[in-house]
Amino acid sequence: MIEKGVESLWEEVREVSLGNSVDRLLSPPTSLQFLRDFVSQNKPCIISNAISHWPALSLWLNPSYLSTVLSSSLVSLHLTPHGNADALVPHPLHPSTLCFVSAHVQPTPFPQALDLICQPPDHLVSYLQQQNDCFRTEYGELESDCDDHIPWASDALGCHPEAVNLWIGNHLSETSFHKDHYENLYAVVSGEKHFLLLPPTDVHRMYIREYPAARYSYSEESEEFCLELEEPQRYVPWCSVNPYPPAGTEKQERSKFPLYFNGPKPFEVTVKAGEILYLPSMWFHYVRQSPGEGGCTIAVNYWYDMQFDIKYAYFNFLQSLPYRSTDSPKMPESECEVSGSHASPNHESAAKDVEANKECEEV
What we know:
This protein is α+β, with helices and mostly antiparallel strands. 24% of the residues lie in helices and 29% in strands.
């Protein structure tokens, strides 16, 4: 049976390739070691002492330094009521169903944005997380505080990063499960990032379905959010699983998503200030964060283009398999109906798949 084979694959990938924990390197690898041991195997790792020379590690601990350097910068501040942008929330017209919501994005002077993050008011959660190469555009004055690329990664991957992004948030923001079609080098400068990771072979455990797209709209005058469906209507493929269900809903969530909760545990890693996480392309990840000395968590990530090679073909093949859980035989994983809409086929073209992920990308 396909079902038994897929479920065996989850365990075998861990036994043969990944092990039970994410490797930690005490020093940066050579480009050959990085390519051979991690990139080619699509295997994550955490690297220490790779950014110890960055001035950012000491300078950015002082919020006044950042506010002074970026005193005249207008930045894209993402606002949500609960810290749950790019996530699933109750549909504004049909609360028993879900929609995919994006944050309200507001151009804000950087010093004001940083104050809202470090001293959050009760009615909103602020996050600097614009994912459009923002570090080299909106935050260009800070570029000399970091490397413009990761040399051993660039050598191994044969290119420089397509985008470099800056992330500044607090403990209230979380990023829901998703995957990216990039090789991601994620460097933490202040605070800690807490990741749950699952390999691409676990795709059926994510219950990816299509949800109507919506967006928060925020009024400064009333200090209230409004949830608005996008027009024209658009649907976004997204992971349905929340690994941390709200209190009182755990039993219900476990029964809805048995493949996730009853299957192999996700890899749990904490990336501390001064460390880099290599997050391979197409790995599913959920992210929380803890603030550092300045009251916020700061990270810089480098997105390198992934190779659309045989690994991508294998993933698309696996994802396209009609799958019915042995735990929940009445709920086939390939079923993607949401509020009367039908998901696009799992074997969509690479271009469409990448575009969807660019529109939906955390964290």
